[in-house]
Amino acid sequence: MASSSSSSDGGAAGDAGMEQELEQDMEQEMEHEEEGEHEQYFLQHEWLQFEHGSEARRRLEKFSRMTHGRSAAIDWGFIQHLGDRDVAEAIVGQATPFRRLFDLAFLPCYRELTLEFICTFHFRIPPSAPLDHPDTVSFRLGGQPHRLSPATFGVLVGLYSLEETQTPLFLQGRVDQDDVVILQWWQQIADGPFAYGPRAESKARVSSIRDPLHR
How far apart are CA 145 and CA 125, in angstroms? Predict the structure, then answer.
C-alpha cells in the first residue's frame, strides 16, 4: 500500500508540475501577445507621433518593445528592522536630491508620458557653462515642447529646491566625472573590477559591492 500510495503521489505531483508548466507557457504567450498590442498602441498614440527616421522615432521603436520595470524605492521600515537605518540615512541624507529621487518612485507613473519624455529628452550644455544656462534641457510632454535650464528642470521634477539651485555647490558643480575618479570610487566600495562599454571584458557588477546598502 505504501508503494502504491507513493507512486500515486508521484503521479499527482507530476501532473501538477505539468499543469504549472502549461500555465506558465500560456502566460508567456499572453504576455507576448499583450506586448505586441502595447507596441502598436504606443506607435499610434497621438503624443508619440514622431517623424519617421528621426531620433525620437528610433527611440520609440526601441523602447516600446521593452519591458519597463518599476522604479526603485527605499523601504525604510525594512532597513529599520535590520538595524541599519542610521547608516543608510548617513549615505542618502534627510533632505537631499538623492533622497527625493528615491521618493519619486512612490508617485504615479504613466507610460505614454514616460515614453514621450525619454524619446525627446536632450541635455546639451556648452563647455564651462553654468547649470542655470537656459535652453539646456529640452523635451516634449503631452505634445508640448519644453526648453529649460538644468536648475529649473531639477526644481520642477522635485530633485532640488529653488534655494539649492542658487548655491555655489550647485552652480559650480561638475556635471560629469572622469574615469579615474569613477575607478577610485569603485575600488573603495567593491571587490570586482570596474569595466564598461561594449568591448569591456568584464562588467561592473552590483553584486560585487560589499555593503548591501550601497547597492
Answer: 18
What are the b/e assignments for 5-42, b being 16+ CB within 10 Å?
eeeeeeeeeeeeeeeeeeeeeeeeeeeeeeeeeebeeb
**Domain coordinates of the chain in residue numbers?**
121-173, 177-215
Cell of 19: 499543469
Task: State if pTM tops 0.85.
Answer: no
Pick the closest to residue 88 from 73, 107, 104 (CA basis).
73
Place of cell 507576448: 32
Do the beta carbons of residue 171 and residue 131 sit within 8 Å?
yes
H/E/C letters for each residue in 114-179?
Answer: HHHHHHHCEECCCCCCCCCCCCCEEEEECCEEEEECHHHHHHHCCCCCCCHHHCHHHHCCCCCCCH
Q: What are the grid coordinates assigned to 41, written together?
A: 498602441
In tens, the pLDDT along 103-142 reads 887 777 788 888 999 999 998 877 666 667 777 899 999 9
Q: Is the dihedral of CA 163, 169, 174, 180 positive or negative?
A: negative
pLDDT tens-digit profile of 65-98? 877 666 677 888 888 898 888 888 888 888 888 7
